[in-house]
Amino acid sequence: MKVSILGAGGLTGKEILRILSRHPHFECVHITSDKYVNKSLIEIFPDLPQKYKNLIFQKHSSPIPTDSLVVLAVPDEVSLMMTPLLLEKGHSIIDISGVYRIHSKENFEKFYKLKHESFSLMDKVVYGLPELNRKNIKNAQFVSNPGCYATSVILPIFFLGELREKISGDIVISSASGVSGAGGRKEEVAYSFLSVYENFKPYRIFNHQHIPEMQEYSAFKMKTNLPEIIFTPHLLPIHSGILTDIVIRFSKELDVSMIESQFNLFRKEPFIRFLPSPEDINLQNIQKTNFLDISFKVDGNKLIIVSALDNLIKGAAGQAIQNMNLMMGIEETVGLL
Amino acid sequence: MKVSILGAGGLTGKEILRILSRHPHFECVHITSDKYVNKSLIEIFPDLPQKYKNLIFQKHSSPIPTDSLVVLAVPDEVSLMMTPLLLEKGHSIIDISGVYRIHSKENFEKFYKLKHESFSLMDKVVYGLPELNRKNIKNAQFVSNPGCYATSVILPIFFLGELREKISGDIVISSASGVSGAGGRKEEVAYSFLSVYENFKPYRIFNHQHIPEMQEYSAFKMKTNLPEIIFTPHLLPIHSGILTDIVIRFSKELDVSMIESQFNLFRKEPFIRFLPSPEDINLQNIQKTNFLDISFKVDGNKLIIVSALDNLIKGAAGQAIQNMNLMMGIEETVGLL
Amino acid sequence: MKVSILGAGGLTGKEILRILSRHPHFECVHITSDKYVNKSLIEIFPDLPQKYKNLIFQKHSSPIPTDSLVVLAVPDEVSLMMTPLLLEKGHSIIDISGVYRIHSKENFEKFYKLKHESFSLMDKVVYGLPELNRKNIKNAQFVSNPGCYATSVILPIFFLGELREKISGDIVISSASGVSGAGGRKEEVAYSFLSVYENFKPYRIFNHQHIPEMQEYSAFKMKTNLPEIIFTPHLLPIHSGILTDIVIRFSKELDVSMIESQFNLFRKEPFIRFLPSPEDINLQNIQKTNFLDISFKVDGNKLIIVSALDNLIKGAAGQAIQNMNLMMGIEETVGLL
Amino acid sequence: MKVSILGAGGLTGKEILRILSRHPHFECVHITSDKYVNKSLIEIFPDLPQKYKNLIFQKHSSPIPTDSLVVLAVPDEVSLMMTPLLLEKGHSIIDISGVYRIHSKENFEKFYKLKHESFSLMDKVVYGLPELNRKNIKNAQFVSNPGCYATSVILPIFFLGELREKISGDIVISSASGVSGAGGRKEEVAYSFLSVYENFKPYRIFNHQHIPEMQEYSAFKMKTNLPEIIFTPHLLPIHSGILTDIVIRFSKELDVSMIESQFNLFRKEPFIRFLPSPEDINLQNIQKTNFLDISFKVDGNKLIIVSALDNLIKGAAGQAIQNMNLMMGIEETVGLL
Questions:
Q1: For the purposes of burial, counting CB atoms within 10 Å of the CB of B164, is it exposed (0-12), middle (13-18) or buried (19 or more)?
Q2: Which among A155, B225, C19, D118 has most CB atoms closer than 10 A?
Q3: C residues 285-304 lying closer than 8 A (beta carbon) to D
């Protein structure tokens, strides 16, 4: 199966190439980057496995091999423009940008600060979170890959199942991400070594663009409404990894087994690991892997769930490959374990 | 005024010595450390200012200059044992350990996992948070210095004044601290470079020993009860600094001016800085200073307050000097600006 | 081909397991660690690929599958004791410890501060640096894997070929290594976060144990003596990676093409990359890879060579696999590109 | 004594202001920064002591208080242009830029890649390294502050005194500096967090602009020529601190006491500390101080000297204040211990 990667010069594109280099069923045939046009992959990313080292970066606008699955790892604006054209040409698509995730146009335009010119595509797109939506992904032509923070939030809440009906009050979430998930290679003082090192900062308080996505999909298959999610992201002085705390108050006392029996329904998920204590959660255990690690602690009717994932892998490139495997009828874990 | 520092070989003791080296009214005359007995200060801390370089570490049990103010920067167990004896001898005392902070013996023994053999001293001690308790500190013989996390939580909530009565639901707090506030020099794998670097972890979930202290003093001067504080601390891969997010839901819509008019009552506090946006909060602005920086953002009836301090300064050594200045009738800011 | 890994609980053992998980021709069947006896691999290293997750750590002294190739990733003392027994039983062996590298017993005992009780094995052992010694490795039963710093030094000098005869004066080398190459998981204050972070230190000046190894093999195939190597290692506040500067003065003016024509003889080496400028050398390009990156700059008759490798991969685990491939008649790069 | 600081918005300017805030004899009256014009000091550097918080940044070209000592912490180009005018007006000057340090116009133009339009000022300027040149500084109107790397190199070699005559072969030096000494706040990808973190790189090999300065002043008061200095700087993933190794071969065997008796001549220098072993050198002991720590080790006729200083203090701002104290007849250590 041929694959084209638009935006392969970014950190997510690079990780997709790293995984594809060892994937037996996909063959990367086309990479684009407006910044690195005419350079070879190996010049830009000498640390990648050598399989694709001689691929040459093309312009985004250069012709895309007709029978290839297309991964869009491009800025939101570029995806907004290119996705409709690519679908029209019949490509299967994984879009890693944020533009086809949320079903409220109003929320999209408020949180993304962009006009959505192709909102009708929201009828066709499948939200690419396999643990929540596997069946639909298998039959999809067009998959929207979830946000990194969103993945770390939605799955733990969704796994609570019917217990979600008993939540009382807000769901208060604090997350922290490594720099590769928050601006990567940008030439801005805010991401300079001297700004980030020996520091820790909140950002986009009350208005991070993943909030409506969390609110929509955490409520997946719920009968009633989910309470409001209050989400605060932070910038960590590390390369990669997201840690998320989810604090929930229930309307009645919990016991541990109530949570466990819900979580047990997902124990066979190949990329979800449930750990005994939230203090066992360790970013070093998920970095460079496609795992989402989850654990929880109960105190009276309070619950805290802690989750961790690699923003570049389960939060982006790995999840994209997981979706591609499903779309193409390949075993879901190929290339990812 | 003579000062003795018990436990001067730790990171807090070191910072007290750094500040005292430049303080015009205090003279450090006695330092103890059971680990460094008979070594000179300069051998152990070559980067300190040179004023006290020839002071020699004594045993904790060696005689203490009779007319000296005593700072205890020792482990909880040592303070439990020594404080009653020192008070009996008439010393003025600042205790930086946690043992004389909370007025519930039950909570103390639950959160500190220690028997409290001198609980009657709780009648005599003054809680050393100047912005909350200045008058009592001025007349005190015995002051208990607040916890580092506790300071970052209590003051922002206390500053809300009567608005505290309108809080609906839990007060959900996420804090993160540099390593010097969470285990410092300990020879444990958990604090090894390879464990902490490129990592971020929660710890003591639902049972951090500062929780009852936060619960008690955040409600200072309130007429009704304060809702429950749910507090989660994290270990940051940095040297020092604490960042705290406080998420509050009110029973009715807020406007910014309601918060501002409460905070304005504390605008003249010499060590509190109110910043325009919580995204301006920056650990680099408070490191090595005695400032607590605070800001907030409102969205409907949700409020987030973000605060930041240096765990070794406003969270320990600096606050101790601020208290000593008050106790001795010196201008509160001397040595600290 | 079956493989047993003694000392699989250390950082090098872990990397060997990571590579073997994806290697088509080796099957790891036995892992030992006196520290983790009876624990499963996945408990200790949850971030490893899942292939070997259910392997259980055995004692070093437990029986080793008879027909397995044995990798020793154990301390020097353990290798000294076990290697003779394993050879007697007919195992093929890769020893990653330092005890069978240097042919001077006097130097061994001086630099390693150990008695060498099985020095006669030095007649049988093959030094496992493929770029220097490939033919001998192919036929070897017993291979000693080079030191990490030593690899970064020996190859660049060896690649100079006959130019080595023209060196005038000392070869002065400064190297710096990440913590995983210099004490890793040790529970010592010297490797605590607060000691290593925001710091940089030289260590083992004039007496690092890799010095005699560098001196011996850098002179491989030389007709005259190599001048003295003066080597200074440093501890970097990073996880992994070694950067090495080699400063050489020649007895006559160099031109760039003289160096290039020597280096060109090794341009087809699969794991050596020659970069245009030493200022292009970047640890991020070699981390997690088996590459040794090399470049140089000439000024009059002065030469500086800069090299970089990952201390855990080309400096340990990756080089061991490269040797295993050669010993077993497999394509040298399998599992490593 | 009034002081004006041109270029006060940079990291060096900030440290000068930090020291002056606690200095009893200098009064900062004027600060400039073309970037921060009309902003107050406290807005730009909230972590500084509060003494000068209301000073407002002016343009470099705004009028300078006539009777003030002027510190130039500006780029080389700005100093080239402004210094002649300021001298003409009679100001005493400390220039922290590099333009008035070396007496070879050819070397200046080669290493600095700038035309030197006011080279005649080299007859008037005094090189501001107090341990080498104290007497001249005391009477100077115009002092050029040394480079940070240069200070860490020149003093240890100068302290060797007549032993310098016995050096055989090159003086090979490897230095590493924190980011604040190598590009600070620059908005360049090379100084982004993701570029610097988990990395270590050499730069300006054979052509760092401090090389001619080292070569000139290391030979201060020598009768013969000093051998060539081969200097390689590196970028460390830390905030501040320089570590320097100096490797020297002598023409005859050394004994330790020969070095010690030379170094003893400088044992009373207030800002030089001689440590027992080079492995005791620790950046954490010199950070935020004006000390230069030095130690050495001898092996046969080889000598290694290791030195360490804070690039912003003894390498820039602290040394500038030390010079100002000398120029104004104040005790040299005031404000710096």
A1: buried
A2: A155
A3: 287, 297, 299, 302, 304
Cα torsion through C204, C205, C208, C213, rounded to 10: 170
How many angstroms away from the CA of D42 is the closest CA of chain B?
10
For A178, nearest residue in chain D (alpha carbons): D194
Low-confidence ranges of chain C (pLDDT < 70): 183-187
Please provide the DSSP assignment of B71-132 as one string: EE-S-HHHHHHHHHHHHHTT--EEE-SSTTS-S-HHHHHHHH-S--TTGGGGGT-EE--HHH
Q: Check residue D186 and give its pLDDT.
A: 63
Chains B, D: CB contacts under 8 A, how many?
31
Task: Give the A:B interface size as CB pairs under 8 Å.
Answer: 129
**Alpha carbon distance D51, D53 (integer Å):** 6
Judge whether C292 and C241 are in contact, CB under 8 Å: no
Residue-wise pLDDT for C237-267, tens only, equals: 999 999 999 999 999 999 999 999 999 999 9
Neighbors of chain C with 3 or more C-beta pairs under 8 Å? A, B, D
Q: Which residues of A touch D238 (CB under 8 A)?
A: 197
- Model-wide pTM > 0.90: yes
Determine the residue type at B5: I
Q: What ipTM was predicted for this assembly?
A: 0.95
Choose among A70, A67, A63, A21: nearest CA to A41: A21
CA distance D290 to chain B (A): 10
CA angle in degrees (0–180, nearest 5) for D245-D250-D253 = 115
Phi-psi region for residue B113, left (φ > 0), alpha (ψ -120 to 50) or beta? left
> Is C302–D206 a contact, with Cβ atoms under 8 angstroms apart?
yes
Asked if the model's pLDDT at residue B197 lies above 60, the reply is yes
Choose the closest CB to C47 out of A22, A50, A289.
A289
CB count within 10 Å of CB B138 equals: 16
The Cα-based distances of B264 to B160, B217, B259, D129 in angstroms read 10, 20, 8, 50
* Identity of residue A269: E
Which of B179, B191, B194 lies closest to C239 in CB terms?
A: B194
Confidence of residue D43 (pLDDT cuts 50, 70, 90): very high
Task: Locate the chain C residue with the closest alpha carbon to B183.
Answer: C194
Give 3-state DSSP helix, strand, coil % of chain C, rounded to 5. Answer: 35, 20, 45
Do the Cβ atoms of C320 and C71 come closer than 8 Å? Answer: yes
Q: Catalytic amino acids of A? A: 148
Q: What number of CA atoms fall less than 13 Å from residue B101's CA on the CB side?
A: 29
Q: Do A47 and C337 touch (CB under 8 A)?
A: no
Q: Is A103 exposed, middle or buried (0-12, 13-18, 19+ CB in 10 A)?
A: middle
| Rounded Cα gap, residues C201 and A172, in angstroms | 44
A251 and chain B in contact, CB less than 8 A: no
For C171, the 3-state DSSP assignment is: strand
* Sheet strand arrangement including B201-202: B201-202, B229-235, B171-177, B242-249, B302-309, B292-299, B272-274
**Per-residue pLDDT at A58 exceeds 90:** yes
What integer is the mean pLDDT of D36-50? 93
Helix (H, G, I), strand (E, B) or coil at A228: coil
Q: Which residue has the tokens 């301006």?
A: B280
Provide the mean pLDDT of chain A.
95
Per DSSP, the three-state class of D36 is coil
CB contact under 8 A, A189 and D185: yes
Of the pLDDT bands very low, low, confident and very high (cuts 50, 70, 90), residue A190 is confident
**Which among A195, A198, A239 is the nearest to D194, CB-wise?**
A239
Q: How far is residue C328's CA from residue C326's CA, in Å, rounded to a whole number?
A: 5
Long-range contacts of D79-86 (CB under 8 A, 24+ apart): D80/D114, D80/D116, D80/D117, D80/D118, D82/D6, D83/D118, D83/D121, D83/D142, D84/D118, D84/D121
> Using a CB-CB distance cutoff of 8 angstroms, which residues of chain C are in contact with residue B239?
194, 197-198
